[in-house]
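Single Protein Entry

Contents — chain, fold
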Amino acid sequence: MADVYLSLGSNIEREAHLCAAMQRLQQDFGQVVFSHVYETPAAGFVGEPFFNLAAGLTTTLSPTDLKHYLRELEQAHGRLHGEEKFSSRTLDLDLLLYADWNLQPHSNVPHHDVLTYPFVLFPLAEIAPSVMHPVLQRTIGEIARESTLSDAEMRRVTLDCSH
């Protein structure tokens, strides 16, 4: 069993796709911890704002199998791979951390976005402040507190996943 952390985002039918993905993760993995949801401007392109959050769960899947599961879930929500890196998405799911494993440079785990984007780092720090970053050997909470990334454009929102 491995503790893993994911990033979830959407800027097309945001609430519907994220609620469905959150429910599916709970269905398939049981106990899942979610951060608050944040609305943030599109990064790297002109587009509708995103909803972003982090999720933590435990799995027996290998990193490769978990990434495959995430790709299938994205595709089930109409995500087309092969599209531009910076573009609108129905669902964007990334494996941020897999236990204390460092799979660099062959696999993007720990994910570079943890140190690059506030909408990845700060929600992750919300649910995993004491988790060690396997490369930096510092906790996610310390990294967030000392980060020069700004959360000024992150606006906390509430999703209604009851329907």
